[in-house]
Amino acid sequence: MIIRCPKCRTAYSVQNDQIYEAGRYVRCTHCAHVWHQMPVFEAFRAEVPLTKAPLAPKARGEGEGESLALSRQMRRRQKGLKVAFISTAVLLLSILSVMLLAQKFFEDMFPASKGFYALIGLKSEEVAKTQSITGLVIPKDRIERSLEDGEPLVLTFKGVVRNINTVSVSVPKIIVTLHDDKGVEIDRWPAYPEKSKLNPGEETKWVCRFFNPDLDSVFEHRIQFK
Q1: Which domain holds residue 35?
Q2: Alpha carbon 46 to chain centroid, angstroms
Q3: What are the contacts of 90-99 at 24+ separation with CB within 8 A?
Q4: 181 located within any domain
Q5: Is the CB of residue 208 less than 8 Å from the CB of residue 156?
Q6: Percentage of the chain with pLDDT > 70?
Q7: Which of 16-20, 200-204, 222-226 is the least confident region?
Q8: Does a structural domain hold residue 78?
Q9: CATH number of the domain that 134 lies in?
Q10: Pairwise CA distance, residues 157 & 208, whole Å
């Protein structure tokens, strides 16, 4: 860009980015005259030799004022984004905290939420004492226990396996174990679910029978996937 001192007519060659869009103050190194120079968008052919000279120190002119205003506006915008992000994070954490503290309430009101709790590692009360594997659960409230008094004596356990995952899952066999009052295992028997694979939300039944169990020693039973 070519600029010229309006007093002594000395011409200078300067970089385009040295003159702001709103202009800036410059000083002539030949006569020390200071003036406000606007950008020159067309090439100026001077008949006198061009002089390369440093521009005067920045004056607080219109260009700098606009730059400062833009900088303040950007800082305010960034501050607003930070506040919005923090507010959103606090809101989400508050909602999650309420859901964790009121898990039973949400499970009763919205049964589908059981899948959400299972995915984040929190089993619902109905499966609290059963083993979960890759999205499969054995609901406690669906387990039936019966005793057939005869010869032989048969202790039967029945239940279902439910897929709470979002994809199809293969169903492994189930192991039912009997324990005494000290937690020592005294017997175990496998159960094979009717279906070997479950789609999301699907269930399958299973049955396990113990023949002539030592009922005097049985204190509790445990059910888990093999």
Answers
A1: 1-59
A2: 63
A3: none
A4: yes
A5: yes
A6: 70
A7: 16-20
A8: no
A9: 2.60.40.10
A10: 5
Q: Which of 9, 25, 59 is the last residue of a domain?
A: 59
- Among 29-38, 82-91, 143-152, 169-178, name the most confident range: 169-178
Is 215 in the same domain as 136? yes
Bridge partner list, 133: 136
49: alpha, beta or left, given left = phi > 0 and alpha = psi -120 to 50?
beta
| Size of the chain, expressed as the number of residues it contains | 226
Residues 6+ apart with CB under 8 A from 77: none
Contact criterion met (CB below 8 Å) for 136 and 174: no
Note whether residue 90 is domain-resident. no
* Range list of β-strands (E), 78-183: 136-137, 144-148, 154-163, 169-170, 174-179
Look-up: residue for tokens 């205003």? 69
Q: Out of 33, 59, 85, pick the residue that ends a domain.
A: 59
User: Before 152, cis peptide (omega within 30)?
Assistant: yes
71 phi/psi in degrees, rounded to 5: -65, -45
Is residue 110 in some structural domain?
no
End-to-end Cα separation, the chain, in angstroms: 81
Report the domain count for the chain.
Answer: 2
Which residue from 120, 117, 95 is spatially nearest to 107, judged by alpha carbons? 117
